[in-house]
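Q: Could you predict the 3D structure of Type IV pilus biogenesis/stability protein PilW?
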Amino acid sequence: MRVWSMVLAATLMAGCVARQDAPLSTEDSLQAARANTDIATYHLRNGALGLALEKIDRALDQDPELIDGHLVAAEVRARLGEPAAAESHFQTALSLDEDSGPALNNYAAFLCSRGRVRRALDLWDMAAANPLYPRRVMALSNAARCLSDAGRRGEAAAYWRRALSLQPHYPPALRGMTEWSLSQDSADAAQQWFSRYTAVAEETPSLLWLGVRVARAADDADRHGQLARRLKERYPASEQAARLTE
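A: Sure. Here are the predicted structure tokens for Type IV pilus biogenesis/stability protein PilW:
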């Protein structure tokens, strides 16, 4: 989801409040819509769905053609368990700009979550084909994750590789290739991909757990022990640390 700066939102709202008793000009209405979208996004991120819905409905009353507003509204409706309303907002966003990368990407993620993988892939491919969309690599990576979660790992690997052809050091794709190599019982390849992944990714319990799995597959007892100790010592309360005893 595209996220607006909260500093910008606060500034715009301050200007709008002073004029709330007077009819808004077109420009003021557009600014107010963007501000309310910012605030709705803030509430959405904090799980305050009721407040997010109130603000995003107001934003779309102020500017019914605000694509970002429709994308936020779609996410709010989806989280409220209203998939038909969510899809309507996604479709409106694309009717306003059929080449919108964020709209294509977000709608595809929604469709994947609903099990409509084929259509989701079509939209991700469209987003990735748009040279003006700066997050094409993310669209390809999302497509790969969708396929992987559906058990279609070979097809997922093809998308991971496409993502890496655009951005060779993209962490989600490097992780994806590590996981795919493990699924293929290719320990050497998994080690190589994991090495590239750790060079660019922040250490997390999930990363260390993946490393433990790679070391185990490679029968590298020393490396396995090092990573397992690091996971237990640095993240003792993590789910991954608990899995070491399984």
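Q: Anything worth pointing out?
A: The first helix runs from residue 6 to 17.
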